[in-house]
Amino acid sequence: MKTKIFFFDLDGTLLNSNKQITPDTYAALCEWHDAGNLIAINSGRPLISILKVIDELKLSAFMPYAVAFNGALIYSVKDKKTIIKKGISLNDVADIYSAARSLSLHCHSYNDNAILTPAVNDEIRYYTRVVKLPVDVLERFPEGINDPPCKMLCIDLTESDKLDKMTDLINSGEFSTGRAAGPARLYAMRSNSRYLEIIPSDAGKGTAVRELAAYLGIDEGGTLAAGDEENDLSMIEAAGCGVAMCNGNKDIFASADIITVKNNDHDGLAPIIRQHIHKI
């Protein structure tokens, strides 16, 4: 049998509401791995956060790959090696932050070890309830960001239309201050109703599926991907078998090959994993 690789989103997909992997889903992952197949965590989270989840939930036994920042960084856990890394130019970082401020939106970024933010506020406190990382305050943000970050994140806890406006600005390029930026270099999409993810346009979870599969010599038919939100759409479309969680955003259902019968709190992925262990 040819080796296959399954790409999993974390929140709302592989993890339940308590941010754990249920016992039967973990058992299914063991069966998948024991059959010689591979696993990749494909998340919007920073790499350091994904690695913590892998360690805490004993996923390191599967020698997984970690795809962070919505596909902007691909990392081999086994080899402790970055395979691919893509960044947002520092000029674009400044333009993104300026556009966010014009809409009174919180906006932060990352380095390899921490969240980089202009202030500790309600948005940061909300975000770090799940993504438990150190926070570095840059009082003259975005000054102090020295390397092109893989991602920037805008947060609107009021769930108003501000994130929609920011999405339109980024994806149309209208945020740029006199430079030809925009859609050629950046892409914005929602990961839930309160978060807007901004990444290089040549990144994305779907692009990462294709890039890592090519790196490993696995053809499209040997790739599977499961997710629940808008930022998972590209990987569901890119994989040979795309799985949408029934508890997820209904806008992604039409693009999926499979919609789970049960949700992420009731082992929705376990039967899907088992069905495809030996399937050609």
Written account of the structure:
- The protein is built from eight helices and 14 strands.
- With 280 residues, it is an alpha/beta fold.
- The chain folds into two domains: 5-85 and 204-275, 3-Layer(aba) Sandwich (Rossmann fold); 90-200, Hypothetical Protein, Haloacid Dehalogenase-like Hydrolase, Chain: A, domain 2.
- An eight-stranded mixed β-sheet has the order 5-4-3-2-1-12-13-14, sandwiched between helices. A six-stranded mixed β-sheet has the order 8-7-6-9-11-10, covered by helices on one side.
- Strand 4 (73-76) and strand 5 (81-85) form a beta hairpin.
- The chain is globular and about 55 Å long.
Write a brief caption for the model.
The chain is of the alpha/beta class.
Task: List the SSEs and their pairings.
Elements: E1 5-8, H1 23-34, E2 38-42, H2 47-56, E3 65-68, E4 73-76, E5 81-85, H3 90-102, E6 106-110, E7 115-117, H4 122-127, E8 135-137, E9 152-155, H5 162-172, E10 186-192, E11 195-200, H6 205-216, E12 223-227, H7 233-238, E13 241-244, E14 258-259, H8 270-275
Parallel strand pairs: 1-2, 1-12, 2-3, 7-8, 12-13, 13-14
Antiparallel strand pairs: 3-4, 4-5, 6-7, 6-9, 9-11, 10-11
